[in-house]
Amino acid sequence: MPKLRINGISVEVEPGTTVLEAIRFLGLPIPTLCHDDGLRDIGACRLCVVEVSMAANGRTRLLSACTLPAQDGMDVRTNSNTVQRARKLLLELYVATCPQSKTIQDLASEYGVRRVRYDTHNEHCIQCGLCVRICEQQMMAGAIGFSGRGHDRRVSRPFDITSEKCRQCGACLYVCPVCELRCQASTATTALCSGCLNFAPVCFQSYDDAMCFLEPCHACELTGPIRSEIPIKKLKKTLSS
Asked: Architecture of 3-79 per CATH?
């Protein structure tokens, strides 16, 4: 069975297990927009990107965890500085594409996105393919699919006609990460909501470039802004007072 290390933790998994499954087996947080249990992963959103190095060659690469099979000798880091920068950039792009999505806004707040440097488009799809896959793989209908290529790629019905196989079950709406609107909906005046910033409990222990992964932290009673943005000296002064 494959043996690998994830954030310094040694783990042995069953053959065929993906790195995403191994990470979640350990209870470590990792964001996704295109993954759903029971559906085949296609690595569309790239938010589950991790930093991977192999003992054989020592090269380090950023790869999507959901489509990456766990292998012997892997060293995986889920929260390195490189990974954090990549996720923030991706979330910034997703907010610019679909600023009305509550799911995307929540993830942006959770992972520390504080600005959007790109023009907003108010699209209604991020091409994650969840709706297409659940219709085909779970509902066994295949009533919708992708059409077009490149910039013109979109989810549609065959010939834009509702298929007889469509049972109007609503599964496509259920899994869609864009369909649930943010609180302000059409009245929003900014691209970034920031209404649900992650005021997580603060932890003084740091393991390399990753903090502890308890959510919430049961060892702390002090709450404050995101951990990486608080000077340790300021926190110690707050605790002593």
From this structure: Roll (3.10)
How do residues 43-66 score in pLDDT, each as one tens digit?
A: 999 999 999 998 777 789 999 999
Specify which residues 75 forms β-bridges with. Answer: 5, 53
Q: What is the DSSP string of 20-88?
A: HHHHHHTT-----SS--TTS-----S-TTEEEEEETTT--EEEEEGGG-B--TTEEEESS-HHHHHHHH
**How many residues are listed for the chain in this entry?**
241
Classify domain 130-176 by CATH architecture.
2-Layer Sandwich (3.30)
Q: Using CA atoms, how far apart are residues 16 and 120, in angstroms rounded to an integer?
A: 39
| Domain definitions of the chain by residue range | 3-79, 130-176, 206-240
List, in order, residues 6 or more apart from 89 with CB less than 8 Å away: none
Q: What is the pLDDT of residue 228?
A: 45
Q: Which two tokens stand for residue 84?
A: 């954090």
